[in-house]
Amino acid sequence: MFRDCGLGDWLGFYDWLRTTAGEVIGVQLWVDEPRAIGLLQAASSYVGVEASKDCLPFRVFFKAERQFDEQASCDQDFGSNLLLRGNSGLVLTFNAPSK
Length: 99
Hints:
Blueprint: E1 2-4, E2 12-18, E3 24-31, H1 34-42, E4 49-51, E5 58-61, E6 83-86, E7 89-92
Antiparallel strand pairs: 1-6, 2-3, 3-5, 4-5, 6-7
């Protein structure tokens, strides 16, 4: 079971990482909530996660592909996103793109 970490429903804006063919291969979060940084740094050891020390940006890749097109990946979505914690780890939620 996962529970809200208490950081609210806004951690920062995010971009859907797309290949040049338009396939969504991940998401990158530009953390705006300072209290989230420590928790996200702990998740940097998870498979598919890339995070610098300050978590700017914090990236989650859905598969092995890591090459994305910067121009096609500049969504700056401002939908709600939550950080949840459970015994087995962390979960980040995002509003998924409609396309």
